[in-house]
Amino acid sequence: MLDRPAHKVLCTALLEDAAVLASSAPLAAVLRRSTGIQTSEGLQMCELIALSCRYPARLTTSLTGLAARAQKAVSRNHDGWGAAFYQGADIALYRDTSAADQSPLVPWLEAHGPEATLSMAYIRHATQGSIELANTGPYVRELNGRMRLFAHNGNLTGIRSQYESDRRRYHPVGDTDSEAAFCLLLETLAAQEGDYKTLPPVDERLANLAVLFGELRELGPANFLYADSQTLFVYADRRFQPATGKIEAPALYLLSCGSEQSPELLDQNVASSFAPGQHVALISTVPLNDKPWRPLAEGELLAIEAGRIVARTCLPTRKKN
Fold first, then answer.
1. What is the number of alpha carbons within 13 Å of residue 138 lying toward its C-beta?
2. N or C, where is the chain less crowded by C-beta within 10 Å?
3. How far apart are CA 21 and CA 51, in angstroms?
4. For helices 62-69 and 12-22, what crossing angle results, to 10°?
5. CA–CA dist 177, 316 (Å, integer)
């Protein structure tokens, strides 16, 4: 294995907390509690997680937490999984159609997975499209010489008919609403970016995404993770809430931490968890431990670079529920 520069650090303690607590009995009990609320297959959504940090860190131990939630007793999200790691100008992409808690790739990634400043992982609950690799995210495409990365949970009813109504440059390989949404996003960005070798200012990119995400959320619950190799964009909408039986916010949570917060957020026995100046932003569909996760508001859109929020907006109240 190649020697890694000293500034490459592991966010191990934080992510191990996530793995342990994500598989805890209280979390499983939430979906099985005797409240009279039934967890319908049609209301289940995929699990998402993303990591942005200043210095390379490993997302891989969080796959254990996601895999635990994929067990049938917890979230029934057992229709495949994927993880993506920016590596220089390209993306290392790992996907499998088996249940994450049964896939041999998950422990392999824990032992050998790459460090990165921008990573994304996903566990699928199939709502549109059969269980096959083409329908398994995250999804990757190239635009203007930059690798773009995308994941979504929710159910965008009718998006494929909307997509097929016009001639497009980007075409889905599979049958999911998520990939169709990604192709629509790329079509929009291609027109806006032109032949730029450099990306537009982050505020401009955020505003452009807000318009498209605002349109897509009218088709159904729409939570998005999108990265353009420089910035991670996070859009929070709604998801099924077992406690109320409703589809409502919050759908995504944010945990931010820096080296100055290590006594509160990290296992002090792991000396290499944070280097001076390190900063980490972790996004998840549910809080994975008892740290100070912040629920994102419905319509909240964030731009995150090197573990810090660099731009934010919030869409107005949706037209319909």
1. 27
2. N
3. 18
4. 10
5. 24
Mean pLDDT by 10 residues, the chain (321 residues): 37 37 28 28 70 79 56 55 94 90 80 84 71 91 96 89 71 92 94 85 96 94 96 95 87 82 38 68 83 93 97 85 49
DSSP labels for 135-156?
A: G-S-EEEEETTEEEEEEEEE--
Looking up tokens 């964009």 gives 233
> pTM of the full predicted structure?
0.81
| Three-class DSSP category at 276 | coil
- Contact between 73 and 137 (Cβ < 8 Å): no
Using the structure block, give the residue that is written with the tokens 């200043």: 54
CA angle 10, 123, 118 (to 5 degrees): 35
Alpha-carbon dihedral sign for residues 189, 217, 319, 250:
negative
User: Cis omega before residue 201 (within 30°)?
Assistant: no
CB-based burial label for 308 (10 Å; 0-12, 13-18, 19+): middle
